[in-house]
Specification:
Strand content: 15-25%
Structural class: alpha/beta
Order of helices and strands: HHEEEHEHEEHEEHEHEH
Distance between the termini: 81 Å
Number of strands: 10
Strand order of the largest sheet: 1-2-4-3-7-10-8-9
Helix content: 40-55%
CATH architecture of the largest domain: 3-Layer(aba) Sandwich
CATH superfamily of the largest domain: Zn peptidases
Largest sheet: 8 strands, mixed
CATH class of the largest domain: Alpha Beta
């Protein structure tokens, strides 16, 4: 017992001696440990910042241009691949307000599920090309609020036109006329081709970016229509029409033949050699998300590597 006590005293004395002889040893060990913890925190912060930067690089929101009435035309981009797919809603503003709501639903979907975009694809969405016409219908209400209280068709006809009372889908350079046709009506196609700032804004974007393919939503007829401007249907346009139609369940057509169309956007795209289709929703109220989600994904998959 006496020997055990002596041994413990010796150990304690040795420990105290080491502390005073090498006072920096313990502080160095503590310093290294704290530095390690700080580095872990710094690494975590750096990684989070890198993730935020990557997210911002893969998703952008900007302004395409201004409407005749001075309203912003928003544009959204997802991904950064070399194949650029453009989706356009709301060219007929409040008359086809559900196309803008469909575009907004697609934006939300891509924000929540960015992984569905192939690495070689960039998706660009213009949800409301005609904000003046949309405002005539929603009258200060939010777009999303209309999904629960859709306007009646009779109240939205004026919303088809922009603030200059021009039908924007009659202002493009294919069979353009200043006195254009819509069903049995005569409507304004503008004073000249691309006279309207909305049409000029999308023209500038397309000529600058040269999209691989374009999908434009309209209502209502319930079908997918190929584009052409007296130059035949591009093979890529046929493939695009069939991909969207087969996946969505909408019937497909080589052309829109219900009445003569002047100055149509997708036909102007065909004139420029860009594959483009018109997707007409079945009515003016529903976005038919299940059908269109399938069509959108089919188009993205078609252009995947």
């Amino acid at each position: 017992m006496k020997n055990l006590v002596i041994i413990l005293v010796v150990i304690i004395l040795l420990g105290v001696g080491v502390y005073f002889i090498f006072p920096n040893l313990f502080s160095t060990i503590i310093s290294i440990d704290n530095k390690s913890e700080n580095n872990d925190d710094q690494t975590s912060t750096t990684t989070n910042n890198q993730i935020d930067t990557m997210t911002n690089q893969n998703e952008t929101e900007s302004i395409l241009g201004k409407s005749f009435g001075g309203r912003d035309i928003p544009i959204y981009q997802f991904g950064n691949g070399e194949k650029k797919i453009l989706f356009v809603g709301g060219i007929h503003g409040g008359y086809a307000w559900n196309t803008s709501l469909l575009a907004q639903e697609m934006i939300s979907y891509l924000k929540e599920s960015p992984e569905i975009i192939p690495k070689n694809v960039t998706v660009t969405i213009v949800p409301i090309l005609n904000p003046d016409g949309l405002d005539k219908t929603i009258k200060g209400n939010s777009l999303s609020s209309l999904s629960n209280n859709p306007p009646q068709l009779a109240d939205t006809i004026e919303g088809r036109f922009n603030g200059n009372n021009v039908d924007l889908n009659r202002n493009f350079d294919c069979d353009w006329k200043t006195n254009a046709t819509w069903q049995s009506r005569t409507v304004s196609g503008g004073n000249e081709v691309f006279s309207e700032p909305e049409a000029q804004a999308i023209k500038n974007y397309i000529e600058r970016e040269s999209p691989t393919a374009v999908v434009v939503w309209y209502s209502s007829a319930g079908g997918v229509f190929s584009s052409s401007c007296h130059n035949g249907i591009l093979e890529e346009t046929k493939a695009l029409t069939n991909a969207y139609g087969k996946a969505s369940g909408y019937p497909t057509y080589d052309e829109f033949a219900s009445y003569d169309v002047n100055g149509d956007m997708v036909n102007w795209l065909a004139k420029k050699g860009i594959p483009a289709i018109s997707v007409l929703l079945t009515n003016h109220n529903d976005i038919e998300w299940t059908k269109n989600k399938a069509g959108i994904e089919a188009v993205l998959n078609y252009y995947a590597e």
